[in-house]
Amino acid sequence: MAQPTDAEQFLTETSSFSFACNDALPCFTQCCKDVNIYLTPYDVLRLRQALQTGSSEFLSKYTRSFLSKGTNIPVVQLAMDTDTLRCPFVTQDGCQVYDDRPWACRMFPIDLAGTGDQYRLIAGKERCKGLFDHSKKMTVKDWLQSQGVLEYAEMDREFQSVVPARFKPGAPMNEGLGRVLFIAYDLDRFAELLKDSRFASFNDVDEEMLALANKDMKELLKLAFGYIRARMDELYRII
Ligand code: SF4
Ligand code: SF4
Predict the structure, then answer these.
(1) Whose CB among 34, 141, 181, 197 lies 3.0–4.6 Å from 13's, allowing a Cys bridge?
(2) Mean pLDDT of the region 79-102
């Protein structure tokens, strides 16, 4: 009977795997080419801060973003170079935005497998030579912690919670709701809304929350989540 490949085996947080990446490997930066990297709102925030650019400019320059056909759920994907198929941030020395690289890049060569505590290796040894390095063995949990994944997971949990509980995952969403959800990616638009003097009273936001959001982009994103949650609840009642 055929044995499952590395990439097909499920892992949990306590599973161990061997992996070490370095620039001497023949596959160095090959994993940054021709890949589907879906961005979360927090990914967009970190990347645009690293690049010191606005959210709208970042989205139009570096991503393909659209409302998914059928469900209207926003999809934001890192746009690979159309000629080389390489990520716009990869150089011969590695990732140009390493400290702020997206969640998916931090997890690589691991990915989530369904819901709960299940993971899988998304790259096999034939592609990711770092998996041959048995000098460095670690648990999935230690790997995720060392890559700063937990902060990303926590922000994404907050984002997922903006959708009303009665919405079934994968079910079609009204286009208007999809557009409201997209504000989480395009925080410049949300910041414009905050400038309206009526915003605070209409949205139950106090001075302290506003001051915090104006000082710290992560707080601004959390405030946007709250705004989106309230709008979605409201629209769900009408639609
Ligand atoms: S394929 Fe694996 S070992 Fe090679 S550069 Fe990418 S992460 Fe590192
Ligand atoms: S963001 Fe960095 S790590 Fe991720 S694909 Fe691009 S260059 Fe590679």
Answers:
(1) 141
(2) 97
User: Looking at residue 80, what is its pLDDT?
Assistant: 98
Residue 228 CA to residue 162 CA, distance in Å, equals 6
User: What is the per-residue pLDDT for 20?
Assistant: 95
How confident is residue 76, by pLDDT bands cut at 50, 70 and 90?
A: very high
Q: If you average pLDDT over residues 135-147, what whole number do you get?
A: 95
- pLDDT at site 5: 53
Phi-psi label, residue 60: left if phi above 0, alpha if psi -120 to 50, beta otherwise: alpha
pTM over 0.70: yes
Residue 168 C-alpha to ligand 1 middle, in angstroms? 36
Among the bound ligands, the one closest to the CA of 125: 1
Task: To the nearest 10°, report the CA torsion of 131, 134, 140, 142.
Answer: -130
Q: What CA–CA distance (Å, rounded) separates 89 from 100?
A: 11
Q: Whose CA is nearest to atom 4 of ligand 2?
A: 105
CA distance 9 to 16: 12
Q: Which of 23, 36, 78, 87 is the pocket-test mutation for ligand 2 (most atoms within 8 Å of CB)?
A: 87
C-alpha to C-alpha distance for 67 and 178, rounded to whole angstroms: 7
Q: What is the CA(96)–ligand 1 centre distance, in A?
A: 15
List CB contacts of 52: < 8 A, sequence separation 6 or more.
none
Q: Is 97 in the pocket of ligand 2 (CB under 6 A)?
A: yes
Indicate which ligand has the atom closest to the C-alpha of 110: 1
Higher pLDDT, 222 or 6: 222
In the structure encoding, which two tokens stand for residue 221, read together?
């994103």
67 token code pair:
């409302």
Question: Two tokens at 36?
Answer: 């589907």
